[in-house]
Amino acid sequence: MSARMAELDGRVALVTGATRGIGYAVAHELAVHGATVILSGRDGSRAAERARDLAEQTGAQVEGAVLDVSAFDAVAPAVSAAVRPHGRLDILVANAGVMLSSPLGAVTGADVRTTLDTNIAGVIATVQAAGRLMMRRKSGAMVLLGSIAGRDGSAGQIAYSASKAAVAGATRSAARELGRWGIRVNAVAPGVIDTDLIAGLPAEAKERYSTATPMGRLGTAADVAKAVRFLVGDDAGFIAGQVLGVDGGLVL
Question: What is the spatial order of strands in the sheet that 140-145 belongs to?
Fold first, then answer.
């Protein structure tokens, strides 16, 4: 492994919602750059399976862990249990989230509660748990997953957009509070990313999104993962409280 590929060597990273899509791509990116990765998800067997796959692909130390971020009071014990064998946590990527789409007139209280419990309450619980662990070493880096919908909104996704706007606020607040402990908190705000979340869209809809993006294509999970890796690495050592758009220029 080259020096550049080993830039995260010796660091322990926890990635939530990491069994597929952007979360899995982030786990892969951190693993190939030297981190020990705890790949977590709600389904423990699925997380363990994906961790084994990633370990075989990269040769890195990758472990699976059960973590349902929507259960606020259960998050801290789950994070502590996952991290305990390593005695440290250096990187958190709070990726777990849900996206429920519905016209405004059809949104239900259950939709709103599910979305907010996972996308913002879950993020706060995870940041709180990780922050306590990082404060012991007075160092660490966190990246929270936002969305361009949190800035510009999205028709048919009022609860999702509101939750992602809240992630931006949580990022800035956590950065202000944790900075004195040497902990950096940032966020990425992906645009339209070609994952299974949009797999059901008609081809013409995907083409419209591609055309609307100045770079002329949809984003990939790897595009987001590389931005995350930059933000948790030493090259971003004086960057905190920022929301980095990864959208091909869709939001300018």
Answer: 62-66, 36-41, 12-15, 91-94, 140-145, 183-190, 243-246
